[in-house]
Amino acid sequence: MSSPVVVVTGAAGALGKAVADVFLAQGSMVLAVDLDEAALSRVYGNQANVRCVAVNLTDASKTKELLTAALVQFGTASVLCNIAGGFDMGPAVHETDDAMWRRLMDMNVATVLNACRVVVPGMQSAGRGKVVNVAAASAISGKGAMGAYCASKSAVARLTESMAAELRESGINVNAVAPSILDTPANRAAMPDADTSKWVSLADLAAVIEFLASTRANAVHGAVVPVIGLS
């Protein structure tokens, strides 16, 4: 029997790597998708059961071309983990320029849409699949100086709910996690005086994602699961 195929976007990042490692430990074939080809190579090297796909997920055409080619080679994905995304503070909403709105919507929404456009049809044909998106605890409501980010991550939550309603009859579960601050090297560098014991560990968040991608979550559709640690 061939190994299950799991697509992980943002795979060269800290959370993407933690999620990929969970599925690799289970014997899955991981399609590691990221914008940064050099980072993918550095993180995964020639690791067995990993196929690196370097593509800008905000480019719908290139995503379709390169990710489709990988799926043709390795088979229909049983799991899609949409980890790619980004955070940025900003000015007040009325002072936020078009470039920032587009950047946050591209990073957090277009990446999800473009990956789903390629992966979900195969899941529909197979009659099964799990999609796990990443929303944000801070986007449950609007926050000052975070308008574009909150709007983009709120859109991820609403898309998750809509997709769940559309796809549940096809045997596909679509859910999301909504983490608070993650304990990553980048966040530690940005907030050197913070109490990191209150943050969410990558291993803990990856475990929740793995649960939502497993048969144990077969009855869960359209959930946006808060993962907030002690923060």
**What's the number of structural domains?**
1
Mean of all residue-level pLDDT scores: 97
The helical percent reads 40-55%
Could you state the CATH homologous superfamily? Answer: NAD(P)-binding Rossmann-like Domain
- Give the structural class: alpha/beta
Number of strand segments? 7
- Principal-axis shape: globular
Explained architecture:
With 231 residues, the chain is α/β, with parallel strands linked by helices. Helices cover 44% and strands 17% of the residues. The protein has helices at 14-25, 37-44, 60-74, 98-126, 147-167, 185-190, 202-212; strands at residues 5-9, 29-34, 50-54, 77-82, 129-134, 172-179, 224-227. It has a 7-stranded parallel beta sheet, sandwiched between helices. It has one domain (5-227): 3-Layer(aba) Sandwich (Rossmann fold), CATH 3.40.50.
